Amino acid sequence: MVRLALRHPGMIVLGALLLLAFGVVTVGSARYDVFPEFVPPQATVQAEAPGLTPEQVEALVTRPLETTINGSNGVATVRSESIQGLSVITVIFAEGSDPFRARQVLAEALSEAAGRLPAGVSAPKLSPLTSSTMDLLKIGFVSDTLSPMALRDLVQWTVRPRLLATAGVARATVFGGELRRIEVLVRPDDLAARDIPLSDVQSAVQAAAAVRGGGFSETATQRILIEPTSGAVTPQSLSGAVLPAATGLPVRIGDVADVVEAPSPRFGDASVMGRPGVLVSLASQYGANTLQATRAVEATIADLRPGLEAQGVTLYPALHRPANFIDAALGGIRTDLLIGAALIGLILMAFLRDLRVAFIAFVSIPLSLLAALIVLDRMGQTINTMTLGGLAVALGVVIDDAIVGVENIVRRLRDAGPEMDRQSVIEAASVEVRAPVVYATSVLALTIAPILFLTGLQGSFFGPLAFAFLLATLASLAVAVTVTPALSLLFLRRVRLHEEPRYITRLKDAHARLLNPICARPRAVALGTLGVGVMSLLAFLAFGSELLPSFREGHYVLKITLPPELLRDPESLGGVLVRSMTTAVPLSQIATLRTVDARTSINHEAGQRRQVVTVHPTRADVSGFVRDAKARIAADVTLPPGVSLQFSGVAEGPLRKHHWQIAPVPL
């Protein structure tokens, strides 16, 4: 390759320029994200079961759905949570499988399972595919002029559809405000006086709220569509609906019930900047570009802002914006790369003392890094903090090969006489150091290669870093054996090089005086090196370990628990009238009501109940903390039969990391 590059230096330089241009275009159009995709794709299945307790939801809804989902292809793990009136099942697809095909298979299985659910349970809904970095943006809305119900209506029916239509948005969840609904508040005394059962009221409400088609009527010249009602259900239209009565006289729903608009019972609320408001949480589509999707959403918000402000709504468009972290992290790494490149340039000028020679060595940095980014982008990977971190680590390595080659070329050109062919000198100098450069790069690649074989969370995090480092290192080798000789021939063929600076000569002499006595005692040097290696290994084993350092995210989660006196008294249910064959009696007369402790949610994993205990380690040594916790639990806690413990989350990372640090050693 060296000889080919020296025969066609112009073509090699042209190829390098094309690589630079294509690399710049790739960097501008590449997908950026905070982290690499460190968890497999997943989807959520939700089924509403109004009125059922968590135990009933678990037995009647969650378990049948779990049985169906576990039999689907491409499913790795199934986790569920059964709460009052709702079953939420998280499906994690197998790593390496096609998530879109697996989701389609899952959707087909759920459509068959929907018919086997109890009456009153809604059909299970399958959410879009989500990823580890799906959180896109949180937007807040507050108003001093609109009521909480009007504000919720505005966000629910005007803002949310526009946000969902934005490219890259998969889900928009609305919190806070008051969700409007029509309530039919039956008066039991009036029902009993007219001898009307509650089921008749329910049937009349359903009939009045139903939307029916009226068909059409043909005339000689046109077809006339028939609309039985306006389609809008209001409290007034429901109140005027007629009930069947035992006496035969027409009775309207309004005669036995109060029909009003009221907010739905709240299962949560939202506070925006300390004020009651509405919060919209956006999730990105699987594989979407976080930065591009965020900017598209912000453009949509900018279009909506004038209309919202005209109605007295104050908008907070970036309560939580993960793209800020991407910008800050990528900007910081880009700054580090630029500073490192500038320092390398200064060192080259200080030691080589020639701008042309320094440029020949320096050009390997952008070529190697851009080549690595092109390969990453072509493979569908994102540019994230880990890949850029790998390039930052490789910054001081990618220039080594070029420096070795160009320094030897300069030295040989200084020693060569004016009658010698410079192309032959450059070729001989490049070939002379080719083998050491290839060997050194190969050893470096083998050293970093074991990280590529890590699995699980740690492999997803550190694999892209090692891969980016490896690509940049291999690209620097290709640059050193092609571009460096070609540029040396073009720039140094007719140039008289400066003599080596005196301080460089003095540094070499000092190094020789230090090296000669060391080389005279090889056994002592070997023993000293072995001693330092053993001490380093012991110090390494004494270090604590954790998968990732703590992140300063700039926000926190606050949990508030209400005192019991603020909760609604459940014993008030005893005053509800229950209609018998002849009269209506309070519920407390025919039933015993009492308050008992019960589970608010039931969690499953792999078809078994699961209770999660979240622990924050008190020291940085996560592995040591887990080891001590296991010993303490084994000594002090007696688990019931059939109950087992499993440490997961961050605790898994260091344990697997130690295993892979010891096992794959390149030879």
What does this protein structure show overall?
With 667 residues, the protein is of the alpha+beta class. Among the domains are: 2-30 and 327-500, Up-down Bundle (Multidrug efflux transporter AcrB transmembrane fold), CATH 1.20.1640; 613-662, no CATH class. 51% of the residues lie in helices and 15% in strands. It has helices at residues 2-7, 9-29, 54-70, 99-113, 148-164, 188-194, 198-209, 235-239, 253-256, 290-310, 322-352, 355-362, 364-378, 385-415, 422-448, 456-492, 502-519, 522-542, 622-636, 652-662, and strands spanning 42-48, 75-83, 86-93, 125-126, 135-143, 169-176, 180-186, 216-218, 223-225, 242-243, 251-252, 257-263, 271-272, 275-276, 278-284, 313-320, 577-579, 584-586, 601-605, 608-610. A hairpin with a 7-residue loop joins strand 10 and strand 11 (251-252). The longest helix has 37 residues, at 456-492. Residues 657-667 have low confidence and may be disordered.
